[in-house]
UniProtKB/TrEMBL annotation:
Protein name per Swiss-Prot or TrEMBL: Inositol monophosphatase
Residues where Mg(2+) binds: 80, 100, 102-103, 222
Cofactor or coenzyme needed: Mg(2+)
Taxonomic source organism: Ruficoccus amylovorans
Sorted UniProt keywords: Magnesium, Metal-binding
Amino acid sequence: MKPQKRKPGRKPVASELRHRINAGRVAVKNQIAFFESQFGQVESQWKEDDTRVTFADFAISEKVFTELRRSFPHDDFCSEESNPEDEEMLLEAEYAWILDPIDGTNNYALGIPMCSISLALLRNGEPVYGYIYDYARRTLIEGGEGEGVLDGTHRCRVLADEPTVQSHFATNFPFDPADMALTRELFEQYRVRCFGSAAMNLAYTATGKLEACLDFRVKVWDVAAGFAMIKAGGGEVVYFGEPAFPLNRFHVRMPAVRYVAGNPAFCRIVEERIRGGGGKA
């Protein structure tokens, strides 16, 4: 049986999409007990790009994809923990899955609860549904096109009011000096949160806890699930550089994603600031 090829213009088949949404939710939930059992206990190593990895990262990646492949053997599967020596993967199937088995691995290894499992479902290269397990609150956050956003059992939306000096946005550090120069006034004008997990930054934005999320150094596996939720919750994603999606190929050495996402009004403020600064954007 040949893989399903992408068909531009084809309307979503509800049963195909619904089957995958349900299966993705089960696959993430099935890893929660293991994820929690290894929290703060598992040994870690450092990869060649100076990011931390643990045995739990590899184990969760293998278990999630093994489970999903049983039902969807012709989908594409992409994980942060793919072998960097592998060739670049062309995404040719209609559906693809992108997994960050532990987002916030530094926090996870050190016993800091701001960490998550992040899984995204793509259709024709675009994120259509995402799941982020928020370990700090023991809550599964999920959402996608036509489905809205669920924070556990509570329906949520992206904040829509005009930003004020009390507005909060999230980011990750360190910043390149040029990017810091472009964004300095944002740090002076608004309140900032840094959780050490790009997925959690986006999840809290999608559920209306934060105004927006700004980042210059994350990868597609960090943002795919969150981008699906942001759009489902009425928010926007603005890129500074090449758009991350639609995604046609995958490799762990892919370039960083530079973006702001969340409240459309806040995104416009950030976009004007960065594009007006004449920097990397």
